[in-house]
């Protein structure tokens, strides 16, 4: 299971301590939650963590679609699937 460290900091810290927050995100692989008037407003992540999170979400969406296809009987024999893939690869 994926659990990212989180730190909460006020918006003034973003302005006054940007380099420190950036380093915290990059090196500590932490999400820094920026608050305005004590309420969550934005989240800062390293670019690498953002890309990793986005990839995981995209994979989960594909898996959810596949699960829905199986549940609703939208499946084909594996041999047909491989035949389709081979045809696509030969075209490209």
Q: What are the salient characteristics of this protein?
A:
92 residues, three-stranded mixed sheet, alpha+beta
SSE topology sketch:
Layout: E1 6-10, H1 11-16, H2 18-28, E2 31-36, E3 39-44, H3 47-71, H4 78-91
Parallel strand pairs: 1-2
Antiparallel strand pairs: 2-3
Q: Could you give a quick summary of the protein structure above?
A:
This protein is of the alpha+beta class and 92 residues long. 61% of the residues lie in helices and 18% in strands.
Question: Could you characterize the architecture of this molecule?
Answer:
The protein is an alpha+beta fold and 92 residues long. The protein is built from 4 helices and 3 strands. It has helices at residues 11-16, 18-28, 47-71, 78-91, and strands at residues 6-10, 31-36, 39-44. Strand 2 and strand 3 form a beta hairpin. The longest helix has 25 residues, at 47-71. 2% of the residues are buried.
Q: How big is the Rg?
A: 21 Å
Count of helical regions: 4
Report the uncertain regions: none
User: Biggest sheet: strands side by side, in what order?
Assistant: 1-2-3
Cα distance, first to last residue? 37 Å
Report the sheet with the most strands, covering strand number, pairing sense and barrel closure.
3 strands, mixed
Percent of residues in beta strands? 15-25%
Structural class: alpha+beta
- The helix content, as a percent range, equals 55-70%
> Averaged pLDDT, please?
94
- Topology, number of strands: 3
Shape: elongated
Helix and strand element order: EHHEEHH
